[in-house]
Every structure is written in C-alpha cells, then in structure tokens.
Design goal:
The two termini are 23 Å apart. It contains five helices and twelve strands. The protein is 23% helix and 27% strand. The chain has a single domain, classed as Glutamine Phosphoribosylpyrophosphate, subunit 1, domain 1 (4-Layer Sandwich). By secondary structure, the chain is an alpha+beta fold.
Length: 233
C-alpha cells in the first residue's frame, strides 16, 4: 500500500501544504516520501511509499521517465511487470535504473502511450501521470477499484488523493457534507462512486481515467467535473 496526492492550481507552490498532505497519509507508506512540482506549470505530486518490489532508492517516487517527458505518482502493484519489462527489453533502448514496477510502468507509458500500456497491465493501481509535452495530468484507477482515488475542487485548486484526509488539510477546504451520499450510506452501508461524503469531491470510478484541466479557474460554486473515460479491459 502506498499513498498519493496532488494539486493542480495555485497551491501547487505551497510546499508546507504538500508536506501536510503527505503526513496525513503517512500510514500508507512509512518507508519513503517524495514531493515533486513542475517548475513551469502549477502541478505538484506527493507520494508516500511502502516498498514491496524494489526496496532501494531506485524506486523513489514521484518518478520521472528516462526521457523526462512523464512523471508518475503511483499506488499499487503490477503483477505482470516482469513480462512487461521483458517486452520492453526486446525492443531495446532502455537503461534500467532499478527493478521496481513503478519504473516499468512509467517507461512502458513512455514507449507505448498510456492506452497501449493499460491494455498490457495485470494488477491493482491508482496513479497520476504528468505529461510535460502535452502539459496534461491523467488520473487512472484499476478495473476493479482496489486502490482508492478521490478528486475534486477546493477553491481554485483541483486536488486528488488516496484518502479524503489529504484533501481536508487544504487551508481552503470547506466543502459541505453531501446529503445524497449520506442517504446512500444509510440505505446501503457505503457511498457508491462517484459520490463522496463531501460536495465537490468525487471518487474516480473503477476502470476509468480522468484528465483534469492543466490550470483550473473554476470555484466550488460552479465546479467543473470532467467525465471519466473507461479503461479498456
């Protein structure tokens, strides 16, 4: 289990906030932590790591692809990452830095693109991916929804996280309780996706990906809620 979080918007420059977000989910990854922020765009990722596949520093996240185009913030496990890495090796041109499935994932995306890579994956995962060339972020959740991922607006910041507590530490968080979600909780014993307990914050449904805007300007009064796309099985 690892923890991920991030901000797209003005607060992506707030290092203290990013640290608080990481601390709030430290229990998900006590082994290592990392903060990455793009130097030219209002995008920042936070990671808490529980090392499983590669215990060395070579698995540190957020991780940048060898070509510098992609930055990955990832929670999960790719069960067939050895086979995916072997396929990448057959096509040549990759000098591996370590043995983590994180590196396999980010280099596969750099080689085949995100859709081509998702078609090959067997595993459980939730991740955020920054594409420096296109200046876009993609949020992706596995087909069965084993790894959680919340997203939404806090003021003019688009935020995402493995747990709601990482969203609540934002100084501007005042999102009210979601009454339909409470009704669903009382009726079903759980809150179905895409709802969450808070207005303006959503669960990314299983097997979907989402591309939020690179520079959000909307407020909670008129929230922008991009439509998730299906991840093909």
């Amino acid at each position: 289990m690892c923890g991920i979080a991030g901000i797209i918007g003005p607060s992506s420059r707030d290092t203290a906030l990013l640290r608080r977000m990481g601390i709030s989910i430290a229990h998900r990854g006590p082994g290592d932590h990392g903060i990455w922020a793009d130097s030219e765009n209002p995008v920042a990722f936070v990671h808490r790591r529980l090392a499983i596949v590669d215990l060395s520093a070579a698995g540190h996240q957020p991780m940048v692809s060898a070509d510098g185009r992609f930055t990955l913030c990832y929670n999960g496990e790719i069960y067939n990452h050895g086979a995916v890495r072997a396929e990448l090796d057959r096509s040549g041109g990759i000098e591996w830095r370590g043995h983590s499935d994180t590196e396999t994932l980010v280099e596969a995306i750099a080689r085949w693109g995100i859709e081509g890579t998702l078609d090959k994956l067997i595993g459980m995962f939730a991740f955020a991916l920054w594409d420096a060339r296109e200046r876009t972020v993609r949020l992706v959740r596995d087909r069965f929804g084993e790894k959680p991922l919340y997203y939404g607006w806090v003021g003019t910041d688009f935020v995402f996280a493995s747990e709601l507590k990482a969203v609540r530490v934002h100084a501007g968080f005042d999102n009210s309780l979601n009454r339909p979600a409470i009704h669903a909780l009382c009726a079903r014993g759980y809150i179905p996706a895409p709802m969450s307990i808070h207005e303006g914050i959503f669960k990314l449904p299983p097997g979907t990906s989402l591309q939020p805007p690179a520079a959000p300007t909307s407020t909670l009064a008129t929230p922008l809620r991009p439509k998730p796309r299906q991840v093909q099985a």
